[in-house]
Amino acid sequence: MMDLEARLAAYYDRFERVLDACLDLRDPGTPRLKEAMRYSALGGGKRLRPILVYTTGEALGALPERLDMPAAAVELIHVYSLVHDDLPAMDDDDLRRGRPTCHRAFDEATAILVGDALQALAFAVLAGDEANSPAARVEMIRLLAEVAGTAGMAGGQAIDLASVGVKLDAAAVENMHARKTGALIAGSVLLGATAAGVNSGEHREALTRFGRDIGLAFQIQDDILDIEGDAAVLGKSTGADAAKRKPTYPSTVGLQAAKQRAAELRDSAIAALAPFGERAAPLAELARYVVSRAR
Prior knowledge:
Layout: H1 2-22, H2 31-41, H3 48-59, H4 68-85, E1 95-96, E2 99-100, H5 102-105, H6 108-127, H7 134-148, H8 153-162, H9 170-195, H10 202-228, H11 231-234, H12 240-243, H13 249-253, H14 255-272, H15 281-292
Antiparallel strand pairs: 1-2
């Protein structure tokens, strides 16, 4: 466990340096836009998605240099989604990671541009990543676009907005969650696999199952924390989903059933890692973290 914790801490430290360098923009348009982009992206966070890129890639033998830009790209997409989700037209949140949201710290117009610019930067860093082959870069760009678009995150957010005050069944909630949150987490796993040259076969299929299961488990745990979590620990307000009459997994099937489903998905994800043996121990530990975290 100590070796694992040290490894994950090393990934985190490495990634913060990588992300900082990506955001050292030479032509940001205005200093205010650059400041707001850095405020949003460098303000802490779990960094689960980039850490999944690193741990997956390492398990498959990829050098860290080949994982840096895919890790940065997926986090830039994630941060852009948070900035836009927090806007008054979407979730209208005032806190993110224990600080004022981007539109509160700056203004709404700047926050919109921050999201736009972070999304563009994500694809730019992948396209310019000389550590990976042109074919790998194209595949990673395609993959990231897919999980961020209508088949993934954007489509899931659209379902979420359309479902306010609507009674959904468990399957419909899972579909929404799998798109809105799960797709980008699953994509992080596959970005690491792509950088390692694993584009097909048993290992790719196993990682697809792993990523799908932990992605859905992550959002179910988020729903649970919105009920049971401590706002001071979470760094954002709790009870927001219920106040906005949004369908969640606990509101659909009950709190205990939601916890059971998250545990089932965790176990299924870990079982999918069997072909990798001990190499996948960090990924298995991340699956456990997803459903035991308090923030």
